[in-house]
Structure formats: C-alpha cells, structure tokens
Amino acid sequence: MGVKGCWTCRERKVRCDAQRPTCGNCAKMRRECQGYGIQLSWPRDGDSKRAVVLRDVDARRRRQRGGDLAVVPVPPRARFVNVGAWDVALALAVELEKGIAPGEYARQHTARYLRSMSMSTSMQLPHPTYLPPAIMNKEESHLLGFFTESTSLMLGPTDAETLAHFILRIALSDPDSSDTTNPVLQAVFALASLQLHGSGSANAFRYKRRVVAEIASEATDWLDERALLKNLVATMLLYHYELGTLESSRRGTWVTFFCAVKRIINTSPAMDKLVRREYSVFLDWIYYHEALSEFTVRHWKIPYEGCGFAPMVRSAGALDGIGRQVEEGIGCPTEVLELLVHACRRAIVAPCPEMAYTAAELERATVLEQCISTAVGDFGPIPAPTTTPRNRRTMVSDLHRVACLIYVNRAVHRVSGTEFRHRRLVREGMLLLRELETCQSAWPLFIIGCEAVDDEQRLAILHVCERSRRDPRQRSSHVDSTGRLVEAVWNQRDLDEEGQVEYMAILDAVIGGLAFMPLFA
C-alpha cells in the first residue's frame, strides 16, 4: 500500500512530495503537516457524503403511493454496518456452535478460516486481529499507521502488503501481553521509527532494545510454537532494522541477526510445528533472504562457512510438491532460489569429500535450470507489444529467472559472455529493467547490471538506479551500494582489455574487497 500524501496536502488538493517526517510543501508554506498516519472520518454537518442517515425505503415508497404510515408499522431495512472477515467468520462459528446449518460452502469456508486463526474446537473466541492493544499511546498508534501504509519502505523487495498483514496478525493477536512485552509489536515500532526519524533516533533504539531484551528473556521457552513464531518474526524484523541503518549497513552487522534466525530454524525441535500453510509467507520470507545471503558468502570471502546451515525450502506448499511458487509471497520463484543456492553452495567452504554433490543433487540442478529456461522461453519473457499493461509481479519474477540463468552461465558453465544465448538473456534482462523503470530487488539488478558492456546499456542501468532512488514509495537503501559495486565491476572489465581475467574472479575481487559483508536481498 503506497503513501498518497500527507493529510494537509490532501485537504488542500495539491500534490505531495511525501517527504519524511514533514512534507516539503508544508515546510515551504509554513503549514502544520498532519502526517501520513490513519485518520478517522466523522460525519459533518451539511456534508451529504459523510452523513449517517437511516433511510426507510419502504416508507418512502408508501408515502409516494399515499399509504397510511400510522396503521402499518414499517420495519427498517437499511442498516449502518461496519464488519470485516473476522466478524463474518465469528458469526458463522456461533451458528455452527448453536447447531444452525449455514450451508455446505459456508461450513467449509468457516472451518478453513478458523483453522487459519488457530481456533480450537472448544469454541474459544479469537481476539480481533485488527484491534490494537488498548494501552497503545498516540506515538505508537502513529508508528503502527505508518508501518501499515509504508510497508514497501521497510519490508521490500518482498510482497510487503501480504507479509505485513501476517506480521500484524502475529503482533496484535495476543490480548494478554502488554505492548512492552510483545517483541513483534516492539520490532514494528522500531522499524517504523527508524524510517520516520532516521538511524539516530533515540526512540527507534529504545524499541530495538526492548525487542532484544524480550527475546533474550524468552530464550528458554522456544519449545512453544507460539513463542517460537513470535521470536522468529521479531528477529527477522531486527534484521531488516539493521538493513535500514546506514552505519549498520557499512559494518555488515545484519549478519548477526540473520545467523541467529538460521540457528533457530535449524536447531529448534519445535520448528516442525511451523511447517503449516498459514505460515508459508513467513517461511518463504526467510528462505528468500537465506538464498541471497549465500550469494554474498560465495563471493565475499573464500573459504567461509557462513552460519553453517544450508538454506532449505520449508513452506508447506513446496514440501507437499504441489508446485506452489514462492513468488506468490516474495516475488521470486522457488526454482530460482534453489538453483542459486546450488550454484553458490559449492564454493562456501574449502573442498572436502563430505561437501561433494551426489548424482541426485546434480540431476536436480539440471532439472531446475531446464524449468527456468522453459519459463523464460526461446524469445525471452517479454511478449509482443500490447495495450494491456503487464503485471509487475510477473515481470519481477521473470527478472529473477533471467538473472539466475545469467549467473549460472557464469558460475557453473563458465561461459565467456560472448555466446549468443547468453547475450540474448542479457538483452532480455535489460528490456525488463527498462519496462520496470525501478527495481527494488538488489540481486537481479546487480547481476544484469554487471553484464552491461556498452554505453547504452550502462546508461540504462544508471537510469534504473536513479529512478529507484527517487521513488519515495519503495525501498531504495540498496541502490547506492548496488550501483557502486556495478560500476566497480565495469571498471575492472574495462581495464582488462584482453579479457584475461575470469569474470567470476572480478566478482570475487569487487565483493571480497569490501570491509563488510554486503547484502543483495
């Protein structure tokens, strides 16, 4: 959900530049900026659009026909109703409890919905997930509203709206815990405060400190499914907090929190309880960052053992083998992440017999590459020109597929880059970036950008970086670091006029030359 502008500019009906924390228009005109948070709309005198009127349609019709209103009582038919999915599911659940048959479809729909809300058969009424705790103050309510409206700034490049809905459901689903002891809610406040006030914000650091203290205090209770889920979500939000801090990004401290997540999911005996369909978006979120961190580890320092755990697909759909793709929740297909891990994992540690790939694993990699090549097609993923705009999510998925094939050509097949099929993939990647205009995903932008060899292609990459940097609705913290790395690769390739240095050696030198571990997620 993007930010449409501050409330002051909306009332004035002028275009807002969406600067934080105060709109530039309001600052220039010395007006009070009302911010970007949620505001309630109340009825106004003389405003028919906001009037709350109960109109009796039957009475009006009888009056037109000359009916006697005093003799025949008219039951009102109009109702002022404000209900959501939770209210409907609760009403159906009550009917089922009282023995009222709502119909087969309604019964099946209610059963699925209540299972997703973890309701037991003993009819324990769930707490409405859209209601914040009563003790939330004005500042925290503002931070919660900002998080809801600006999820792409904090959770990108994933499908931020779907992921944010899941995070808020976990954060607001425990009415018994106060907001100060709720690690997920405090992590949401920390992330929102960081985006609003910058890395020097004392409030953001205070919220972060509460999260760390609460996670440390519950470390012994992680055998419980609910506690494990809350602490994992909170730790992943802290990981995103570190990504959004400029000083942290320069030091690569995001590794600390992400390695903590990897240790938990690979060692906790309660992790199997989270392999459920309603948690798929969360598990896919972790796997996406696991896979792309492998790329960083592959090129940053060799040998390097990383966190010691190989990424694994854990979502219920993938494990069931029904072909569900991760792109539904994070914008990247499952097979792309699997093949990327396969291409990177061999070089993470020094060669040893136990790290040798089996024939089945090599065959799996071949199948994945064929599957991705088929999805891209012989003529690229961009169809013939049409008046109907393409779905952006589909284009982002295609961008990851093209980038994956380019990297596999370089890392596994060791192509020189002059082959026709490889140049065709580069061309299709450039066309996709031009059509997208902005790119939140750092990894495909880096892979395709490094392949630019002439001025036209390089100017196109710089144009995408500039457009991404200027977009106030999307995450752009990755653009500067990714752009500098791409330009460093260009410089090394230009200096190697005779092509004597292998392409992968250039990537190793550029990425490994950094004092900190970068991130391409």
Walk me through the structure:
- The chain is an all-alpha fold.
- Mean pLDDT is 76; it is low at 67-81, 113-131 and 321-327.
- Helices cover 57% and strands 0% of the residues.
- 36% of the residues are buried.
- The longest helix has 21 residues, at 280-300.
CATH topology of one domain: CD2-Gal4
Mean pLDDT: 76
CATH H level of one domain: which superfamily? Zn(2)-C6 fungal-type DNA-binding domain
Measured by DSSP, the beta-strand proportion falls in under 5%
Q: Give the biggest beta sheet.
A: none
Q: Report the uncertain regions.
A: 67-81, 113-131, 321-327
Q: Tell me what the CATH architecture of one domain is.
A: Irregular
- Rg estimate, integer Å: 27 Å
Please give the share of residues in helix: 55-70%
Shape: globular
Structure classification: mainly alpha
- The CATH class designation of one domain is Few Secondary Structures
Instruction: List SSEs in N-to-C order.
Output: HHHHHHHHHHHHHHHHHHHHHHHH
DSSP summary: helix tally: 24
How far apart are the termini? 20 Å
Count of beta strands: 0
InterPro entries: Fun_TF, Zn2-C6_fun-type_DNA-bd_sf, Zn2Cys6_DnaBD
Protein name: Fungal-specific transcription factor domain-domain-containing protein
Main location: nucleus
Subcellular location: Nucleus
Protein topology:
Layout: H1 7-12, H2 24-29, H3 57-65, H4 85-97, H5 104-116, H6 138-149, H7 151-155, H8 160-171, H9 183-197, H10 202-217, H11 225-244, H12 246-251, H13 254-267, H14 280-300, H15 316-320, H16 327-330, H17 334-345, H18 359-376, H19 392-411, H20 420-436, H21 442-450, H22 455-470, H23 479-495, H24 503-512
